[in-house]
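RECORD TYPE: inverse folding
INPUT: structure tokens
STRUCTURE:
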């Protein structure tokens, strides 16, 4: 028995009358975008496996520069489980693959979101994305510098009677967490600047928050830096303050360009009367009224007549 297959046309749920995409078409596009992004991540993961060992050696460099960490010409670490290093290399390969495939999955994400944005919103997205990557990289470099200087202090606290042989997975997690926290911290001024561009926060108000911002930056730096010395904490806090005041300057220039703060009621107090835009019409006196003329009112309205009902209308 043979069956004839016929392609079914789009139903009323799949094609809108105005030509726009329907929910089913959006779901299909999201599926295709996620599939392409996954292919890019898989390819990046393959390259990350090849680069996992050099990246791990780079992350081990701050500890290997310490005195006593090199034994017989090799930097010594401890492995608690037989598969810990293998799993660690796979984890590093995944992170490296995400970084390598970032242009692919970011483009797929942008291609899915961009049709719903206005032209000026797309322009701002390009600018903020271009600034986010260098800021994160700058935070990662600063974190690597802080770890290199602070690790010597932390290892020295153990004393001479304790062997300084670190467990490799915990050490790599410590370094990567520091890089992640510093990189995310460097994105904070960019987030504040985005709030200004969408009109939620003005540059003058951001400038009024500078005392709170400086206190929060120093508090955050004191928490995340691994050493109690003031050098690493001060370096991170000063960088965050400089980025914040730079964002405030850009926000004030943006407010000046858009004319914010010059609205018609911007300089009025809460209890001040606003000026009228039009002149009131003068009121003139009316004519004289003759008392001999009868005063007539509206015609009386007749009362409604009752409606006759039959016995069979009753229910």
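DESIGNED SEQUENCE:
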């Amino acid at each position: 028995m043979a069956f004839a297959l016929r392609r079914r046309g789009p139903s009323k749920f799949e094609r809108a009358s105005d030509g726009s995409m329907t929910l089913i078409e959006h779901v299909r596009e999201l599926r295709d975008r996620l599939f392409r992004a996954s292919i890019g991540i898989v390819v990046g993961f393959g390259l990350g496996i090849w680069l996992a060992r050099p990246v791990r050696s780079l992350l081990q460099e701050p500890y290997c520069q310490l005195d006593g960490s090199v034994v017989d010409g090799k930097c010594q670490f401890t492995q608690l489980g037989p598969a810990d290093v293998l799993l660690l290399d796979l984890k590093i390969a995944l992170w490296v693959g995400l970084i390598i495939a970032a242009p692919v999955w970011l483009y797929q994400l942008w291609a899915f979101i961009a049709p719903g944005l206005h032209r000026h919103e797309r322009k701002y997205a390009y600018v903020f994305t271009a600034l986010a990557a260098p800021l994160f990289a700058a935070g990662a470099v600063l974190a690597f510098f802080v770890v290199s200087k602070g690790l010597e202090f932390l290892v020295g606290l153990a004393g001479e009677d304790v062997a300084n042989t670190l467990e490799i997975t915990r050490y790599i997690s410590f370094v990567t967490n520091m890089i992640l926290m510093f990189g995310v911290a460097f994105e904070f001024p960019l987030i504040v600047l985005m709030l200004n561009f969408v009109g939620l926060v003005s540059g003058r108000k951001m400038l009024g928050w500078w005392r709170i911002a400086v206190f929060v930056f120093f508090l955050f730096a004191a928490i995340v830096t691994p050493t109690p010395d003031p050098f690493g904490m001060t370096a991170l806090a000063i960088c965050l303050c400089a980025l914040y005041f730079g964002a405030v300057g850009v926000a004030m220039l943006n407010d000046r360009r858009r004319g914010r703060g010059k609205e018609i009621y911007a300089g009025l107090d809460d209890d001040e009367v606003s000026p009228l835009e039009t002149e009131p019409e003068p009121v003139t006196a009316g004519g004289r009224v003759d008392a001999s003329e009868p005063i007539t009112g509206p015609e009386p309205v007749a009362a409604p007549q009752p409606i006759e009902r039959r016995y069979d209308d009753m229910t």
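NOTES: The CA atoms of residues 143 and 177 lie 9 Å apart.
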